[in-house]
Amino acid sequence: MSEPGADAIVEALLFCSGRSLSCSELASQSSMGEEQIAQCLDNLRGQYKRRRGNALQIVEVGGRWSMEVDPRLSSYLPSELRGDIPDRLQRAAALIAYHQPMMQSDLVNMMGPIAYDYVRSLARLGLVDRRRKGNTRRLQTTRYFAERFQCPHTEPKKVKEWFRQQAEENGISSQALVDSIRELDPQVGDMDVIPDSDGTEEDIEDQD
Question: Ramachandran region of residue 63, left (φ > 0), alpha (ψ -120 to 50) or beta?
């Protein structure tokens, strides 16, 4: 058997890691330097994008790379394959619903760099849609989020209104959501809660 190429080695590392990795982390797990790792990652991302009907994708967020299932396929996966959604992720999704459309940079300011992993996990689970906007991403909820939280609406604008009403009736504030995430995850840094008036209705994109 011939020696595997550099791209194949990096692909295998991403597949087996189960989490996001930086170029330096990938380099430390191989005999390659960071520049070669970066080139391999760019190659792999291009290859995956060109494959028609591919179920997987190579994603880079905040300088960290991962291999994940295309979020569009999440609703087709059996529940036992999705697994239970940890409380910390459910609460992070709720926080995004409360503030949507929410800039990923705002979430990072609130949670620290660990927010990138949260967003990636939520996107992988199909709970959050993340779309590039300038140097950051705009986050808003998906149809699956509405189903998961038993919301009668699917349009992000209506989901936000419904969720805020539910939160108000139960005495849950944005600060309370933030504090609850912090209690569950010690990796979450000092948080700076953004105002409740963030986002405008015009910023929210309706989804079918």
Answer: left
